[in-house]
């Protein structure tokens, strides 16, 4: 007997045929003993088995679809689609020892309200799980995992192999139709960089040369330096999903393959990026971002006069022109740019 049927039997106000005050039959107690009792037993059994089945299903679900398995199969394309906002993804690449730098950078990005667009390319499983556990969907691992023992040593072959992956990830995101901004995580945002991406150029980048330029410097590819190529930083690049930008990335990949790592060369990806810029300048629409807003660490941390003169204009600070994890943290602290200790509550990852 359903609840609905039972309610229908209830006397209604104004019922033209109200039931007699003494129901004629002891139907209920009778039915309870001969019919409802076995039914109740059956129902309880059914309920128990249902509960058991649900428990089992849940158990199976969590072992087969454990968070670990879920993120192991998460692809760059799924991740980019998940984080993209206004057709734009902000990408960084991080291995486990660099999590404090990631958090520091992320706090500064969150202050500009762009953190939701951030995708972390995890270079090891520990990073993948650490990020996605706290901030689901914002980290992805693109196999194969590089050799983590050597991947952090600047100038090593492992480091080179690690940087080789960067233009490939960027190209894949452009192929999906998104704009992408790449950042090294030893950077700090002091302002929103997006208003500086003026016009509709294919690629935007910053100069790594420390020499002071006039505030109204030109925005084309700077002339080559001593090594015959420009000194553009591969640390901060913005690309639109255009033919020109994809062409540049393919050239960058090609250049890295043509100049493989050797003990003598100790290559990283920056020379190859600069040769790619040098060789594609006539086919790609390039834009050099203003030095006062995007200074190299070689200028910002070394010329106090310049920093004073350009006060209020700085947008992204790069902690380069210095080698070593501890030294970078120390320098950030000295300049009030180490946010990871006191402001971790502003990070989507919390304290890490
Ligand atoms: C997306 O674009 C709109 C309109 O230009 C802007 O107001 C908003 O801040 C943008 N959001 C992000 C996350 O960039
Ligand atoms: C780097 O990549 C090359 C070519 O794929 C490989 O032979 C080498 O073992 C890798 N080295 C390290 C240290 O990852
Ligand atoms: C490209 O490199 C060559 C060789 O160093 C140099 O002569 C040329 O000026 C460079 N072009 C640009 C646009 O940087
Ligand atoms: C430091 O900056 C000042 C002011 O912009 C500039 O005149 C000077 O040449 C710079 N010093 C060096 C060593 O580049």
UniProtKB/TrEMBL annotation:
One GO CC term, this protein: Golgi membrane
Identify one Pfam family in the record: Nucleotid_trans
State any GO BP term from the record: rhamnogalacturonan II biosynthetic process
Class of the enzyme per the UniProt entry, highest EC level: transferase
Bias type Polar residues, positions: 1-11
- Keyword vocabulary terms for this entry: Cell wall biogenesis/degradation, Glycosyltransferase, Golgi apparatus, Membrane, Signal-anchor, Transferase, Transmembrane, Transmembrane helix
A GO molecular function assigned to this protein is: UDP-xylosyltransferase activity
**Where does this one sit in the cell?**
Golgi apparatus membrane
Q: Where is the Nucleotide-diphospho-sugar transferase domain?
A: 114-332
What kind of membrane protein is this, topologically? Single-pass type II membrane protein
Output compositional bias ranges, type Pro residues.
Answer: 16-27
Q: Which InterPro entries does this UniProt record tie to the protein?
A: Nucl-diP-sugar_transferase (IPR005069), Nucleotide-diphossugar_trans (IPR029044), UDP-D-xylose:L-fucose_XylT (IPR052636)
Primary location recorded for the protein, binned into one broad class: Golgi
Task: State which Enzyme Commission number(s) the record gives.
Answer: 2.4.2.-
Start and end residues of each stretch annotated as Disordered: 1-27
Ranges annotated as spanning the membrane: 39-59
Annotated family: Belongs to the glycosyltransferase 77 family.
Q: Which PANTHER family match?
A: UDP-D-XYLOSE:L-FUCOSE ALPHA-1,3-D-XYLOSYLTRANSFERASE-RELATED
Q: What is this protein's record name? A: Glycosyltransferase
Give the organism the record lists: Rhynchospora breviuscula
Q: What is the lineage of its organism?
A: Eukaryota, Viridiplantae, Streptophyta, Embryophyta, Tracheophyta
